Amino acid sequence: MNKKSTSKKKSVRIMSQAGSGGELHQSVSSNECLTTNQGLPIADNQNTLSIGPRGPQLLEDFILREKITHFDHERIPERVVHARGYAAHGYFQAYEGNSDLTQAAFLNTPQTKTPVFCRFSTVAGSAGSFDTARDVRGFSVKFYTSQGNYDLVGNNIPVFFIQDAIKFPDLIHAVKPEPNKGFPQAQSAHDTFWDFVSLNSEAMHTLMWVMSDRGIPRSLRMMEGFGIHTFRMINERGEAKFVKFHWRPSLGTFSLIWDEAVKLGGADPDFHRRDLFNAIASGDFPEWELSVQAFSEDEANEFDFDVLDPTKLIPEELVPLKPLGKMVLNRNIDNFFAETEQVAFCPSHLVPGIDFSNDPLLQGRLFSYLDTQLSRLGSPNFHQIPINQPKCPFANFQRDGHMQMQVPNGQVANDPNSLDDGSIRENPTHGFHSYPAAEAGSKLRIRPESFADHYTQAKLFFTSLTEPEQRHLANAFAFELGKCNEAKIRRRMLGHLQNIDPTLADVVGNKLGMSGQAEKLKPHVPCKETQPSKPLSQYSVAPKSIAGKKIGVLVTNGSDATLIAAIKKAAKAEQATVELIAPKIGTTEDSKGKELHPDHFLDGAPSCMFDCVIIAPESSQVPSLAEQASATDWVRDAYAHLKVVGFTAESRPLFEKGSVPFDNEPGVLELAKGKVDDFIEAAKMHRIWDRESKVR
Ligand code: HDE
Q1: Ligand 1 binding pocket, CB closer than 6 Å
Q2: Which residues are listed for heme binding in this entry (predicted)?
């Protein structure tokens, strides 16, 4: 317990009633003691009311019953998808006015910092699953604008599995734990998922993304975001353009290696949230640039895919990105439940100047999110929960309902009325107008022919990747299909891969021991040839930098003080962080007798938790370290995960014991006394890809 929480006066924080004039966060500094929810001072919070010291206990104990009853009702239904999430506060600021494009105020007032709340999530796992599962990541941003809340509810992958909302429940049922057994958890590597997607060739493009390194991000701070659907932006003159939204992290987009992701699942199931929380807590605020690809309806008609089809992206070579502004996350949550759990995103939360398109997936979402909030949060008044409240004035004649937190005044709750001259009215000038798109046609249940090409962009993605990225993608397909019990599903999937790229199908088929067994699947539209698009590959455009990354330094009592100081200084200059890992967590001393405070206990901090590592034990400690599996595994894994490894001459026995090469080995650098420049330069490469063929 920290000092603050033991303080009698400041320990309890309550919510005052929103709308009754009180602040949302209130520290009960004036409270002398704990009270019941009715304000009754509590004399004893440790013992139940009973007859005599050994009972029986009395039903009369209303204090016990209030406390236990509240506890019994603490949980609400978790989100049916995106249950596991983490969030932070921040702001969005436009670079300049964008009035040619949109009338949205928050994109036209560069002097204003619009508050935001941003929640990241995995899709398939339940709230208690682990962060590094292979999955799509949610990327939701609530902008508290002067014109009301705008929610941009996107993912870290620019396309989606299905083209029509009516398929969504089936997709999710297929990826969730199989209903007869209740597992696997947070995994797509099982029969129902691959059965479903292999029966839906429209899923192929998104599958390629999820099986690529994008499915295992290194950090939430190093992840792109996409609105996926085509939206509209409308300016003051009523002119509309179609837009696709992109978020780009300033740190660059990086991923884990599969073996790291698996090990991190055990070593630190909270790896991504801890990383985000710690970065913000230390003042290293993550940033993303918001851009749009804006294009006219006429331009859209020229593309050889349909912009209403959410399984398609628009290559940046066709429509470049227009940067609009940046988002900075600079404040951690105060309370996980009140904020991260209760935040309710809805793609239908719009502001004037932004509107929908007829993307059938988007149209289905417009219904789903409001509906799910009603069941999850239990009341149509969920907008009154502090995290969901607009920060601009809001008022209407909607009334009552479960958990009404406001106390509306007056006789009148209807519009129009003539009883209250001062009562609020609609405002045709500043109010929201839907874009008056002309629509006509017959009522049908039919998929447009323009949605029928399911393979071309899957191939576009694959051929745009670097060789290591392609290799990882093939390995991921093999891993996932290898977990499929039904051979017919594996054969069907190999058939799709054959239609995307025969070499890929061969590699995966080979790994599965199923060469030549791909099912023949006749594509509705055969794969067309395309030019690779560089931005689709993370590694082609990765910045040479270690900003935001973590250097793990393995130290012992007596480790070289000069080296530790040098690496800390160099890391700071590069905006990276250093963490010390030691065989014992208690305070120890460096070579100059100065106190060393390890951040981690070696047994609990495998090297997969760091981006690059330095091995710097004091020489007399090396023999005993070399006897510990946690130390030799540390070195072996760092090497096998293609990390840049720095080491002192004394630590050679650790490499020998772990059979890790270190002489003339690219990316494995012996550090001359206190010299870390070469190590830092090498670490900017992120990984030594050429090593992969040796270790895997
Ligand atoms: Fe969602 N989705 N979704 N989704 N989605 C939800 O809403 C749904 C889709 C996305 O951090 C749910 O509040 C349908 C695409 C994110 O709170 C639910 C369809 C994209 C989040 C729902 C889709 C997303 C959700 C569950 C197909 C990327 C987490 C809890 C028509 C553009 C939001 C909730 C948060 C959450 C429905 C497809 C992103 C059930 C019906 C495409 C990031 O309403």
Answers
A1: 79-82, 85, 119, 121, 138, 140, 153-155, 160, 165, 168, 228, 310, 345, 361, 364-365, 368-369, 372
A2: 79, 119, 168, 365, 369, 376
